[in-house]
Amino acid sequence: MSPMWSTRPILVAAFLLGCAASLRAQEPPAEQAAAPRTEAERRELFDRVIANQKRNDEAQAIYERVERLETRKGSAGSPPEVKISRAVPAGTGVDRIPVGPDGKPTDPVAYRAELQKLERSLTWASEDGRAQRDAYEKVAKKQKERADLIDATRAAFLYTFVATEPRGDSLLTKYRMEPNPAYKATSRSTSIFAKVRGYIWIDEAAAQLARVEIEVTDDISVGGFLAKVYRGSHLMQDRYEMAPGLWLPSYSQYDFDGRRLFVAFGIHDRTFYSEYRRIGPPKEALAAIRAELGKSSSTASDP
Question: For residue 46, which phi and psi values (nearest 5 degrees)?
Fold first, then answer.
């Protein structure tokens, strides 16, 4: 089971959740503005964007989905390694069960065995013991660190209105994101803000962050001198309304190159997300998985 909070999403945490926070202070050029907007209206809009994005982030802990991960190793022309899984939140982590291209099991026996493993994980996550409390405290700490990064972006970046762009039936507002030269980093994590730039797109009608593209403009050290992400690394993400009022990722791409100690590494992943379905917190998810396994309601009610 992979952790709910890993180190790689630090950049995503900073930009997907925090970018909109700094936008309220930026005045789009009058000749390019999509529509007249007072300062109070802008403040209200971006307050909604921030609140919605936090709600979206929380929802990922109770929504399962199908993930298609394409990982490229070697030359740019080499075929990617493809893994398709049913990703189910399980309290302090996400359980990924292999499925076929249609999102259905390819081996019913192996699939049932994976569901049984998930049942055990959810049973543990539903209990109220010392180990569970310690695990959830670690999750809460990571959430707090993520929130601190969001708050830091209010001062760390300057945003400039670029244009409005259509996407399907929606109209997105595009902003250029650049480091604020007056910002003073308060931690190792916030120090990366000076070394990235990019663009974000906001659906103003829904008050939702719809797309982000980030480029690393200078090498970023990770863990002191233990690792480094090289200049030119890139990430992007698209987000759509996957459930009423919830905008969740539909596509993410990471193209990171660097070194770990003295060994070069490359992360070149594309992930497609689909078939979102609310499964709920651990106790609710446990009942759903037990029902899927064909267990009785009396069993499902007693973790």
Answer: -75, -25
